[in-house]
Design a protein that fits this description.
Largest sheet: 5 strands, antiparallel
Helix content: 40-55%
Order of helices and strands: HHHHEHEEEEEEEHH
Distance between the termini: 34 Å
Number of strands: 8
Strand order of the largest sheet: 3-4-1-8-7
Strand content: 15-25%
Radius of gyration: 26 Å
Shape: elongated
Low-confidence stretches: none
Structural class: alpha+beta
Length: about 290
Amino acid sequence: MATFNRFCNWVFELTYAPMAGWPPWVSLGVISAVIGVVMLLAYKYTSWQSQIGKARDEIKARMLAMRLFKDNLGVTLASQGGVVWSSLKILFLSIPPILVAMIPMVPLLAQLAGRYQFAPLPTGKSTYVRAWLSDAFAAREVKGEASLALDPVPGLTIEKFWRRADSKEAWWKIRCDQPGKHTLTVRAGDEAVTKSLPVGDYRSITDAVSPKRTSFYAGALDNTLMLPWEPPPPADSPVRAIEISGLMESAAPDVLSIPLVGNWILYFLIVSIVFALIVKPVFNVRI
C-alpha cells in the first residue's frame, strides 16, 4: 500500500504543481472538468452501449405510444410498464461501469482532500497531538523500562502532557506560535517517528495537509489508503499512529462563497457531471 500511495502522490503532485498558485475554485474546477470527461469515457468503454441505447430507444417509443394512444387504457398501462422495465435495465447495465469508476475515485478523493478539505492550523492556535503505542512498548513504559517524549520544536510550545493509565495512548497539548512547515518527533524509547504540522495561512502552504500518520485500521480515516501523504510508521515501531486533532477538525474555506455548492466535494461533483454532460454528444456516449 505504501508503494501505491507514493505512486499516487507522485502522479498528483506532477499534475497539481502547475495549478498550485491558482485560486482553489479554478484549480479544483479544472481537475473536476478533466475527471468528468475521463469518467465519461471510462463509462463508455466499460458499459454495454448498444444495450443501453436500445433501452433508451424503447423508452422513447413507449413515451410516444402513451401520447398517441392516450385514450387507450391498455396501451397506456403497457407503455408505462415498458418504461419502468427499460429504466431498470439501464440501471442494471450502469452498475458495472460505476463499480469500475469507483476504483480510481477513492485514491483521487483522498488526494483532493489533502488540499481542499484539511487546512494548516492558524498561528497562535492550540491543538492536541495524540500518539497510539504498541502493547509491548506500553507494558515496558508502565514498568519504567522505557520513556515517551515529544521533542521541542522552535515555534511550537508544549503546554501539557498526559497519557492513559496503560500507556497505550498519549496526548500533548501544544500551541502553534510561528507559521511554517513544522516537524514533530515522538520518541518512544530508542525509536523516533515524525509527523508534519503545517501552520499558517492555507494559501501559503500548497503541500497536502495530513492530519494523521498511521499504520493500522480502526475507522474511516485510520487507513493508509485514505491518508496517503505520509508513509505509515515502520511495522516494528512502538508508535503505531500520530494524529493532530486540530488538522482533523480544521477545514480550508469553501472554494466558492455559495452555501453548499461551495463545499469542495459538492463543487467537484457538480463541475465533473456538468462537463461530462456537455461532452457526452461529442463522444456519442449513451447513459
